[in-house]
Amino acid sequence: MTISGKAPNLRRLMSERDLLVGVGARDALDARIIQCAEFDFIWSSSLGVSASYAVPDASLISMSQYLEAARSMNEVVDIPIVVDADTGYGNANNVIYAVKLFEEAGIAGMSIEDKKFPKDNSLLAGGRQELAAVDEFAGKIRAAKDTQKSPDFLVIARVEALIAGWGMGEALSRAARYVEAGADCILIHSKSQSSDEIVEFVKAWDCKTPLVLVPTTYPDLTEEKILSLGKVRMVIYANQVFRAAVKAEEEILMEIKKARGTHTVADRMAPVKHLFELQGVPKMKEQEKKYL
Predict the structure, then answer these.
(1) Which of the following is catalytic: 30, 40, 57, 120?
(2) Last residue of some domain: 197, 218, 239?
(3) How many domains would you assign to the chain?
(4) Considering the entire predicted model, what is its pTM?
(5) Beta-carbon contacts of residue 2 (< 8 Å; ≥ 6 apart)
(6) What's the CA gap between 35 and 28, in Å, rounded?
(7) Distance CA 128, CA 93 (A)
């Protein structure tokens, strides 16, 4: 599939399937592995990309760095990329510039959250979860929709009212306002250890605009249960892949240190041949035979 065809493909998938499943990536290798596992789309994770720089997920790295990460992912996969664009990198002017560049890079959609810039990660204990004014954020959504060139580019409004502790009523009223502003989907986020408040939100949601869920802290809400709720069209496993990678790396480093060699870890690593396959080496060698 061409890069420019990924936004239409995401829209087509949303119309054909009851639930799309995406997985968070921090870099192009993550994205390639996720595609090989046959998921529907890639979530270019703000947490993941910032973690790849070993800095906090707190609006520290630039929009250009997030753009380059998403572009590198997009170039090595055929499935769509949806970018976790934090607060839109500033005000509505920043959103306009970001939409222009991400769409030109072939990104299929982006999610913008209604917190103040700079933000803290939503799951950070004791984090500064300050919400933007409703009208200000609605302006960002309008700016994004007015800027996009392709009608298929997906703009997701991420509602953080439950994260900030502002309550269900606030979450529902904000979500409805963002739909009025033109949002294609509403991502309702929660850090509760139970899925109860998310289920309550879904049941109370009376707009036709589809919902997006990120069941990080409430893994009891499986895809089967999500489908039974209706209204939800996308689910995102936002950070599990790179969290698993960090744990595996730490464990194997401890074992190498303990064993004073790599003789005890061979069965815990992917073969080098598989790494070459993920890098596209077989295709490169075919090209060499043809052109060199």
Answers:
(1) 57
(2) 239
(3) 2
(4) 0.94
(5) none
(6) 11
(7) 24
Q: For residue 269, give the amino acid letter.
A: M
- Per-residue pLDDT 10s for the chain (292 aa) are 445 589 999 999 999 999 999 999 999 999 999 999 999 999 999 999 999 999 999 999 999 999 999 999 999 999 999 999 999 999 999 999 999 999 999 999 999 999 999 999 998 888 889 999 999 999 999 999 999 999 999 999 999 999 999 999 999 999 999 999 999 999 999 999 999 999 999 999 999 999 999 999 999 999 999 999 999 999 999 999 999 999 999 999 999 999 999 999 999 999 999 999 999 999 999 999 999 9
Verify that 94 and 131 share a domain, yes or no.
yes
* 29 three-state secondary structure: helix
**Is the peptide bond prior to 219 cis by the omega test (within 30 degrees of 0)?**
no
Q: How far apart are CA 148 and CA 140, in angstroms?
A: 12
Tell me: do 271 and 205 sit in the same domain: no
DSSP for 230-289, written as a single string: -SEEEEEE-SHHHHHHHHHHHHHHHHHHHHTSSTT-GGGS--HHHHHHHHTHHHHHHHHH
Tally the C-alpha atoms within 13 A of residue 256's C-alpha that lie toward its C-beta: 11
Query: 């509505």: which residue's tokens?
Result: 92
Identify whether 57 is a catalytic site residue.
yes
CB 158 within 8 A of CB 112: yes
Q: In terms of residue numbers, what domain contains 273?
A: 246-291
User: What is the sign, positive or negative, of the torsion defined by CA atoms of 5, 10, 15, 21?
Assistant: positive
What three-state secondary structure class fits 162? Answer: helix
What are 142's two structure tokens? 């309008």
Q: Are residues 264 and 130 in the same domain?
A: no
Both tokens of 7, joined, read 């936004």
